[in-house]
Amino acid sequence: MKQLTSAQIRQMWLDFWASKGHSVEPSVSLVPVNDPTLLWINSGVATLKKYFDGTIIPENPRITNAQKAIRTNDIENVGKTARHHTMFEMLGNFSIGDYFRDEAITWAYELLTSPEWFAFPKEKLYMTYYPEDQDSYNRWIAMGVDPGHLIPIEDNFWEIGAGPSGPDTEIFFDRGEAFDPENIGLRLLAEDIENDRYIEIWNIVLSQFNADPAVPRSEYKELPNKNIDTGAGLERLAAIFQGAKTNFETDLFLPIIREVEKYSGKVYDPDGDNMSFKVIADHIRSLSFAIGDGALPGNEGRGYVLRRLLRRASMHGQKLGINEPFLYKLVPTVGKIMESYYPEVLGKKDFIEKIIKSEEESFARTLHSGQHFAQDIVEKMKAADQTTMSGQDVFKLYDTYGFPVELTEEIAEEAGVSIDREGFEGAMKEQQERARASAVKGGSMGMQNETLQAITVESRFQYDVTELTATLVAAVENNTSVESLASGQEAYLVFGETPFYAEMGGQVADHGEIRDETGQVLARVTDVQKAPNGQPLHKVEVLAPLRLQESYILAVDTKRRHRVMKNHTATHLLHAALHRILGTHATQAGSLNEEAFLRFDFTHFEAVKAEELRAIETQVNEKIWEALAVETVETDIDTAKEMGAMALFGEKYGKEVRVVTIGDYSVELCGGTHVANTAEIGIFKIVKEEGIGSGTRRILAVTSKEAFEAYREEEEALKAIAATLKAPQLKEVPAKVENLQEQLRELQKENAALKEKAAAAAAGDMFKEAQEANGVRYIASQVSVTDAGGLRTFADNWKQGDYSDVLVLVAAIGEKVNVLVASKTKEVHAGNLIKELAPIVAGRGGGKPDMAMAGGSDASAIEQLLATVGNHL
Known about the structure:
The protein is about 35% helix and about 25% strand. By secondary structure, the chain is an alpha+beta fold. The protein has five domains: about 5-245, BirA Bifunctional Protein, domain 2 (2-Layer Sandwich), CATH 3.30.930; about 255-440; about 450-555, Elongation Factor Tu (Ef-tu), domain 3; about 565-715, 2-Layer Sandwich (Threonyl-tRNA Synthetase, Chain A, domain 2); about 765-870, Diaminopimelate Epimerase, Chain A, domain 1. Helix 17 crosses helix 18 (about 610-625).
């Protein structure tokens, strides 16, 4: 066996497939782009869905990649098994309608067994296949594989909903009898028994059918273009090449584990209880990469996943005796391990460390709160004579506060109670099922559209014109290619060239008209999108007959185009301002440049402060007023990077790119249209800043006419306020408002003082009516107050004198009943007494020995409650 590092394995994979004519696609962000069906990029093929469903035709139908991915459906298994991870690397090779089964299997066997490449011993490889897929069986046989090494498995068929699907053949490596102590052998594979002997290293999916949930699998129609989709786990390959017992003893994880040893003073024992080391090593990789890609810890979605990973890792640190923030210190180690292929982790090291350290410190405070919550639960259980903490309470401590069930169990045992383990596990299972359902939902690809895929004629977009004459070269009506179109139809058209911009990079499509040489409008263009082969595809309302191969005048709505251009250029200015004022981590996470507004989403870990928003808005306007030239050049990607061009989120760039430069302020890669000078934008105004998800903020802004109208609207509102305040000048309004606020504060103080006097006067009379029961003096009365604070005021006055031992007050406030019990004697526990009285008014409550409160809903029972106080003393 060869001894290969993880970096060598990855590079050898990519080099092999490049030698077979594959284009090497770079690993993309873990945060999905324009794909709301996925929480994370969870496989190598997830980034290529647009190719597999035919939405876009790739330049090269042969693709290979090494893609970082995250799956978090079974976080609890991380650390328990040898191969379970939240973040992993999937090595893949893909064919989009090019080669199929024979080549895929032949080349896979060559890569695995050739001395030039991986050089696995052939006798160590086993393959599973779908029983009805005899073609794959025969191909493996043709490659010289022993029939005894081919195992039919009924589950070897890949499909998730409608769309591309097909049989798959999996490749396993036999690690030998040392990992099969019971000598079960091939039954481990045939019966899908969990084991450490036969390690799945590669899955080849033969995507040849369009899955349709409405029909049996035997009736699936074949795809017009058959595809190959494969995945091989780098971590598993590394474990085999490096002779590791588990994935965690490879060069991908061991350096992290060694650092944890330093911080904990504990030693990692591959054969001992090392779960905490594994959890930390796995989770810090996910955290470092995900935060580096723009995801931030939070309370929902991706943010919740990261927060949960961090808290779980932190708790395992505590199990190892690390009682201070330490995870952030592991980020440089993660970066160094992955530097050869993922330099961005070290490049963003300071920011990633800052976020993780802040979250660790926050969790320490949360953990403290959780301990109080756990103690409160125990106290309430004792008061109610309960001996078992409910599974839901245990789960809440785990889910909300990050408490491992073992810690909750310790707290419970110290208090002499137990926990409902079964109920907790049931709640855990429900959460895991919700996570799995969420992960699978929408994961399939769309149906291939043969009609649009078949359009291969050339079409060129002309940037610098808004009207030209062009030939109609393709027309589609009702998903069918046609030679001519009649009026009254909706259709999709392709021209040899066009001035119409197809929606891309957040810029909406152009609208306009199609005319004949006399000026008659023949069709209205209502949208333009890219066809699978990249041509601008015009969606039109046909007003008069159109025919293929005839020439027409294409005219863009220039007013609309110019308004969109203003907003698009302003977006570039906004992006640059965010970088300068908030930091370089504030990168684009989506945008929309519309006719009347612009919307910009960006990564940031907190709400943008008012002074920051003002500074951003001011800086953008300053650049507008400086009348900076907006210049666009076409160049190659390497030159663009040397120019300092910033790539826009979600865009895929070819060899030739467009670089948009705004003075010396902004340089970005961008395929959109822009104004020639920032002065054309006129004015820029932020109208809203909000959070749209964990770690992601959104700015809505307007320019030009819309910005003027927004300012005018605010001015009119301010004038109305000035008139009400009788302020002659607008600049006097703030002082007038502050003066009114001060007057209001003084009146509120006077009102509170009067209320206290009134309460004291009322209390003076009420406190004279003490009663006695079982040797305890008590006062029980209904009072009139506006809120619960009024009851406390009565109680404070009562405490000042020797009126009685116990005070019971009841007040009907709105539709609710409020009850207060105060006690000066050890003979009466206020909290216990209120628990007996509250049910009378359909309420519940509790409190301390000297003071307790309750709320109820049955005001008709107030007199009954007051009459029975003596019976409970």
